[in-house]
Amino acid sequence: MMSLHWLCLCNHVLVVSGLCLDEQRSLLLQLKKSITFRDDIDKRSSRLTWWNASHDCCSWMGVTCDLKGHVTGLDLSEEFIQGGFDNSSVLFSLQHLQKLNLAFNDFHHEIPARFNKLDKLSYLNLSTSSFMGQIPIEISQLTRLVTLDLSVQYFRLGHELIIKNPSLLKLVQNLTSIRQLYLDGVIISASGHEWCNALLPLHDLQELSMSGCNLSGPLVPSLATLKNLSVIVLYWNNLSSPVPQTFAHFKDLTILNLASCRLTGTFPQVVFNIETLSFIDISNNDNLHGFFPDFPLSGSLQTLKVGLTMFGGALPHSIGNMRHLAELDLSNCGFKGRIPNSLSNLTELISLDLASNNFIGPMPPFDMAKNLTSLYLYNNDLSGTIPSSHFEGLHNLESIYLSSNSFTGAIPSSLFTLRSLRELWLDFNQFDQFQLEEFMNVSSSILDLDLSCNNLSGPFPTSFFQLTTLSILKLSSNNLNGSTQLNKLWELKGLDLLDLSYNNLSDNVNFTNVEPSSFPNLTTLTLISCDLRNFPVFLRSLSTLVSLDLSDNQIQGIVPNWIWKLHDLYSLNISQNYLTHLEGPLPNLNSNLNNLDLHCNKLQGPLPIFAKYAMYLDFSSNKFSTFIPQDIGNYLSQIYFLSLSNNTLHGSIPDSICNASQLQVLDLSINNISGIIPPCLMMMSDILEVLNLKNNNLSGFIPNTMTAACSLWTLDLHGNLLDGPIPKSIVNCSKLEVLDLGSNQIIDGFPCFLKEISQLRILVLRNNKFQGSMRCAKTNTTWEMLQIVDIALNNFSGQLPRKFLSTWKRFIIHNEVVEKLAKNIDRWSLFRTISAYYQISVSITKKGLKTDLVTILTIYTCIDFSSNRFEGPIPEELMEFKELHFLNLSNNALSGEIPSTIGNMRQLESLDFSQNSLNGEIPVQIASLTFLSYLNLSFNHLVGKIPTGTQIQSFQASSFEGNNGLYGSPLPSVENRNGTNSWMLPQQKCGKLVCTVDWNFISVEVGLVFGHGIVFGPILIWKGWRIWYWKLIHKILCWIFPQMYLEYVTQRGQPYTTLRWGH
Fold this sequence. Notes:
Helix content is 8%, strand content 23%. The protein is mainly beta and 1063 residues long. The strands form 11 sheets. The protein has a 35-stranded mixed beta sheet, with no helix packed on it. A 7-stranded parallel beta sheet has the order 15-17-19-21-23-25-27, with no helix packed on it. Strand 10, helix 4 and strand 11 (207-209) form a beta-alpha-beta unit. It comes from Flemingia macrophylla.
């Protein structure tokens, strides 16, 4: 745009040869002499090479003069000039200059202050010339300026061009003639009211471009008073505000670019109907809502981009009225319904992107858009077959992405006749065949073809193999077998990437007869789950191979030695096979091998030698049985992922492992490693993100050496012999989300200091020697994200802390938020590092059984306080945990009644209150817990009838045993001799009843108590004594005669106790 403007200005200057004034010539020659260039630039290409004293200076390249011989225009753009334009430059003596262009140079210093000497300037372009620092106030004295371009295309941190002091207001307040103002990339850092108000006096302003200026919002409605504005470019700012309705008042607006501005609210529909508008880009504003209006026939829009916003609804049929539309981007929005057939009216379309929406139905034809170069419809729910006629004649098409839809039938043969086609992605559909006729005129030059994840089977067209330009071919996850002619793939000599994964190829592709010269350019070969039994021999000659994946096959035996000699091999994955040994003697592993995955095999013996520059190593789930080499750290200088888990490694963790300065994931779990945790390992926490040492024999204290910049988000030390307290330095790990210290010998109180870690999601302290109360001193921090707490099998005591529990926000989170979270797996459940995935695993005791949660959804919540010494009532605050799924308070000394507010816990799936001293009746609200699949209330002092409800009666009677006063289903009922129904608890023998007297102490006492009871019974005239007396007699008789048992009989709604003799 600037170059065109410069040419227009030059048309108004009459260049007269022979009128150059000597003074002007002399100044220009001095300027030439003072200029320096970048060292790497050939100075012979410069315009200044032609500046010669023997020629008229007005005819020099880049120089224009007026009729009197004064230099009025100077264009030294794109000369890579580095020096010669400071405040002492003779440039500022050319005081007749009206136009100066110094764009695209490399000055790397501040803009000289002496520009005010050039007071006749109407055009000044200093863009992308590496000027830095504050823009001088002297620029504001150039009151004749019509065009000012100080824009920055890129800059280095600390070398920005800024407007701060003086401010934008002071800089432009005198530039009342300005029409074009370009400040892109200049750091202004002003609020919306400040920068908007600074521009309001510029009544003649026509073009405003201030992208990437660090501007803040809001957008001020009064901007619309600049009625001459035709270009507004403000993208890459943090405006964080709605777009004012007043923007519809820009009657001459042609270009509006507000992309990536964090816009909010609803975009005003009327802006789309501005008659002069040709370009609008409001994309990448993910909180901006909107709907399209009915577009008029007279619209002049050529570019319409709203991708990555919350625009939605149905796409109006009137979109077809925009006959001038060349680029339409509606990707990653919420549009739904059918794609209107009126899109076929857009004959000027060059690029169409409707990807990642909710469009349904068939794909409309685009055969009238002869200029179309790219078509993106992937990630929708389009369906039906695609007629071959839809693509006929579209010879400018270069890219077609139809992935992740539900297209069926045959792949249109016309796709392979498009001469310009380079990329064709049809993956993740339901195509089942190619069209029956052969591709008669295969004339395309396709480079990238993705047919993976379809249902392709049957005959493979032989003319397909005429696509000799193919560089990338993906056929994975189909049904290619039987009569397919895949052996002809070897004829595609230009292949760079070949993926045949998840096909049953063992009987259909003869890998043994493949000539080494078949793939002279192949760099990536992926044959995952292809039922291979052996290593394809032809691989040993593929010297160009960079990435090889043979995982999840049936390959058995030895890993051949030649595989390590593939010189360019960068990534090798032979995991999930039946490999047993590495062929020896092992050479030093290829220095270029960065990613090596051997997990889930049967490899034995010592660990292989590590590649010196390895970045990813996974040797987990094998049978390696040696110790970890003491010098392992010498081979790990570049590694970021190392897993040796689930082997039988022994010995200690070498200190040298701390030399792996790039390590992000270290997994040594499920081995026989002993000794202490090296203190330096915890000092690596500023880099280390996942440390998993669970299920080993590690002992000693956990090192208290976490750094202030700790980056750990998973620390798993479960199942070791660690003792001592939890290290206080763990609070430095502010990103920690998973902490599992379960099944150790840690002696400590409840770690209240962990509340400083607000991101904590999983806390497992079970089966240790923790003791004392859970009460914490007052703190302002809360565990807002906590969702799994397991402190079972410790010695915690006292009452459950009511106020403390109320700070666990995640258990009370609103349902709407939970539903949103349920659609995703959080980052902590699936860790992604460049090319590696890491899954965490947390063990809990659920429904009485140990359960491993491997991939944990954000909605799963669990509290396990069982097997401690908690006492007192169940807190009402706990009943407010509306999103709790699992609650276990069993085997404590809790008392009081079960709160009736338990009905609030509607997501509860497992509830265990057994082995406590709870009394009263079971609240009827418990019957409303429709998701409850496990319930255990046994061995308490509950009484009354068990609430009725489908869910409650589905549990076994054992869920209620050991409660002397309970009756009702599912407890079995029996009929008495008098015909009344009674409810019999499934009591075990008296030795199993809740009795506290041991037979070792009652050999004499039984007779004494029994005799005194017979003698003094009549004198016990008080009712309370009588009840106590008969209960005691019943128990004594039951102890003496094992055949006797107590039964609770209900008559007229009242429970009674009777003693019966068992048969």
